[in-house]
Design goal:
Largest sheet of chain A: 7 strands, mixed
Strand content of chain B: over 45%
Number of helices of chain B: 0
Helix content of chain B: under 10%
Distance between the termini of chain A: 37 Å
Order of helices and strands of chain B: EEEEEEEEEEE
Distance between the termini of chain B: 41 Å
Largest interface: A-B, 30 and 26 residues
Largest sheet of chain B: 6 strands, mixed
Strand content of chain A: over 45%
Radius of gyration of chain A: 14 Å
Oligomer: heterodimer
Shape of chain A: globular
Shape of chain B: globular
Structural class of chain A: mainly beta
């Protein structure tokens, strides 16, 4: 049973470019959450997708956008990259992480390390 | 918005020692998460707990809902326990994925 997989593992981009990161959730999971972790810091919540819609969003600019596909996999897109976007991007999956539903444990991927030069 | 405070930030222990990491949060929550992050970056979820105590091998997590405080204990610590331990709580009104993370405790266990 595959866990959460993220691709690519590493990526180097130039300031101003655009990047797409991918996340495949654990089998049976339908909710995907994305996080940014700068070096030496704790992760920060970017947004969450459920039923192909962005359900919740953290304090990130519109340059950060996402998508969820019918097979529950998800993409994180970042436009107009800044040097400060260099970070480890993590995704986590869970099952029906919605109000009124029992708490669902999170399963994390190994992350994509993005370097912006 | 929930605020999560974690202590200590750094911890060095000798193999076999009993270790405690503390976490406090400001807003009532449905569950608190303890996570482990190794130098490679991947995060492993250790516990999600809503009340009382949970145990998995040498790891024990406790939570006091009234005091908004949780602890992670490691018994008989081993060098392979060396990692960053992070507690995280759902943001106010948020789902389990919408987490506020503590700054982490970097644990180093010496043989």
């Amino acid at each position: 049973d595959a866990g959460v997989t993220q691709s690519p593992t590493h990526l180097i981009k130039t300031r101003g470019q655009q990047v797409t990161l991918r996340c495949s959730p654990k089998s049976g999971h339908d909710t995907v959450s994305w996080y940014q972790q700068a070096l030496g810091q704790g992760p920060q919540f970017i947004f969450q997708y459920y039923e192909e819609e962005e359900r919740q969003r953290g304090n990130f600019p519109d340059r950060f956008s996402g998508h969820q596909f019918p097979n529950y996999s998800s993409e994180l897109n970042v436009n107009a990259l800044l040097l400060g976007d260099s970070a480890l991007y993590l995704c986590a999956s869970s099952y029906k992480d919605i109000p009124g539903h029992p708490n669902s444990p999170l399963h994390f991927g190994n992350g994509t390390r993005l370097t912006v030069t | 918005k929930n605020e999560v405070e974690q202590s200590p930030q750094n911890l060095t222990a000798q193999e076999g020692e009993f270790i405690t990491i503390n976490c406090s949060y400001s807003v009532g929550i449905s569950a608190l998460h303890w996570l482990q992050q190794h130098p490679g970056g991947g995060i492993v979820s250790l516990f999600m707990l809503s009340s009382g105590k949970k145990k998995h091998g040498r790891l024990i997590a406790t939570i006091n809902i009234q005091e908004k405080h949780s602890s992670l204990h490691i018994t008989a610590s081993h060098p392979r326990d060396s990692a960053v331990y992070i507690c995280a709580a759902p943001n106010y009104g948020g789902s389990q994925g919408n987490l506020i993370f503590g700054k982490g405790t970097k644990l180093s266990v010496k043989p």
